[in-house]
Amino acid sequence: MVINEFVKPKVGISTCLLGEAVRYNGGHKLDHYIRDTLGKFVDFVPICPEVEAGFGTPREALHLHETENGVVMLTEKSKEDLTEKMTSWSRNKLKEIEDIELCGYIFKSKSPSCGVYRARIQREEKGVNLNGRGLFAQEFISAYPQLIVEEEGRLHDPVIRDNFIQNIFINHRWNELNKNRSIRGLMKFHESLKYSLMSHSPRILKEMGPIVANSNKIDTDEVFDLYKVKLVEALKELSDKKKNKNVLDHIMGYFKNNLDKSEKAELKEVINNYYNGLLPIIVPITLLNHYVKKYDDIYLQGQFYLNPHPLELMLRNHV
């Protein structure tokens, strides 16, 4: 499958994370890695719900409150209820951006509008719920249940960050494929993702095979829709050392007739050292890529797993 290398993946993001002074206190929450490193390889689509909904900057702080009728958004001191205004704006905004092919979204953690996992919800008699969800984030996730989303704080975890950014680039490939749906294109897409999917969910990978293999028996659009559901399910499962070692061992098997005894021993040792936490995964990946190039293995050259994102992001140096 041909990917347009000049088109960057589009990623939604809370505007304050890019250093824009849109916070309630007139400040920002600049994340240098997101803006200055990841930003070189994606096109951000910044959104600040509270500013765009007309709440102004600076503004009275907002809090979420649990009531018998559900969660509401109130100003901190005056207790003005802005729930309807935020919800209405959110739904209109989602209609406005529905033609943008977003490949992921980075939300500001703990925000009453954007928090995904850790927004504070005040409860009169039960104390504070620290696992709430902001109003815009809730509307967004309901509208795009298959799109991967994260909070900037969770992206400090190397495994979560690697998984999220892999998803961005896989979704970008999917969007390109989706513009001209063909079974042949889907087959090539699936072939290139074999080891990436194996590193996330070997079980779901097995379920995806028959969808592609039997694609001539059902409508193309139905095949694509079924495949996308399984793709999302697989990528939601985080890879780990055990699953990655399984993939690395499989790839090593392609060179059983090329490597001499000492080379095989070295590669096996490097893979085991990664599995035991002594080396980051970039070490066995680099060695395998060396052999892929040396022996000109066309199949492995097309495997997304071996080059899932730009080296400059240095994601695999830390997992």
UniProtKB/TrEMBL annotation:
Matches recorded under InterPro entries: 2-thiour_desulf (IPR007553), DUF1722 (IPR013560), UCP037004 (IPR017087)
DUF1722 domain ranges (all copies): 194-310
Domain of life: Bacteria
One Pfam family from the record: 2-thiour_desulf
Protein's UniProt name: DUF1722 domain-containing protein
Protein species of origin: Thiospirochaeta perfilievii
Record lineage: Bacteria, Pseudomonadati, Spirochaetota, Spirochaetia, Spirochaetales
